[in-house]
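can u do me a favor
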C-alpha cells in the first residue's frame, strides 16, 4: 500500500527487497539507493526474512525447547522411579528369593520372576498413561505444532522408551537378587 494512502501508520514504512543471493550482502546497496531517492530517509533494522521469521517464532521455539527438556526430565524421573521401586521390592523379597533358591530355583528363574513383575507394573502404567494421554489430547492439541496429539508414532516411541527403561531398571535389581546366597538370605532380617 502506498505510504501516502495509509494515514493510520506511525510514519514507519516497511519494504522488502527480493534477492537471488545472501540478502545481507545487498544491505549497503539498498541503503545507497534509498539515500539517492530521499536523503532524509533513514533506514534502520535491516534484516533478512529468515531473521524476521526466527524472531517472530522465538517464543514458540523457547516453549518447545522447555517442554522437551521437561519431557526428558519426566522420562528420566519415571525411569529412576521404576528402578527404585524394583530395587526396593527385590530387597524386601530377599528372604523369599533365598528360600526359592534353597528349594532349587535357578538364577534364571529368579531373574525371570523379578523381570516379569517389573514388566507387569510397567504395562499397567503404560496402559493408564495412554488412556490419560488420549483423554487429555483435546487440552494439549493447541500446543502442538505439526503433530497430532494421537500420533501413533509418538505414542509408540514413548511406550518403547518406557519398556526399555523398565527392562534396564528391572534387570539390575533382578540380577542382584538372583545372586543372593540362600544361606545369607535365610538369615536376612
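np, heres the sequence
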Amino acid at each position: 500500500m502506498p505510504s501516502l494512502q495509509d494515514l493510520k501508520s506511525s510514519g514507519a514504512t516497511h519494504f522488502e527487497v527480493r534477492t537471488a543471493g545472501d540478502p545481507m550482502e545487498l544491505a549497503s546497496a539498498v541503503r545507497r539507493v534509498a539515500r539517492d531517492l530521499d536523503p532524509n530517509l533513514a533506514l534502520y533494522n535491516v534484516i533478512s526474512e529468515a531473521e524476521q521469521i526466527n524472531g517472530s517464532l522465538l517464543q514458540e521455539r523457547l516453549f518447545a525447547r522447555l517442554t522437551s527438556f521437561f519431557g526428558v526430565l519426566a522420562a528420566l524421573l519415571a525411569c529412576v522411579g521404576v528402578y527404585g521401586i524394583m530395587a526396593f521390592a527385590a530387597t524386601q523379597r530377599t528372604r523369599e528369593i533365598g528360600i526359592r533358591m534353597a528349594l532349587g530355583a535357578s538364577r534364571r528363574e529368579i531373574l525371570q520372576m523379578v523381570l516379569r513383575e517389573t514388566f507387569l507394573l510397567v504395562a499397567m502404567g503404560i496402559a493408564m498413561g495412554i488412556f490419560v494421554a488420549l483423554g487429555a489430547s483435546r487440552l494439549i492439541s493447541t500446543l502442538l505444532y505439526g503433530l497430532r496429539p494421537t500420533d501413533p508414532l509418538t505414542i509408540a516411541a514413548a511406550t518403547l522408551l518406557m519398556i526399555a527403561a523398565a527392562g534396564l531398571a528391572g534387570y539390575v535389581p533382578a540380577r542382584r537378587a538372583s545372586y543372593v546366597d540362600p544361606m545369607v538370605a535365610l538369615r536376612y532380617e
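The CA atoms of residues 115 and 167 lie 7 Å apart. hope that helps!!
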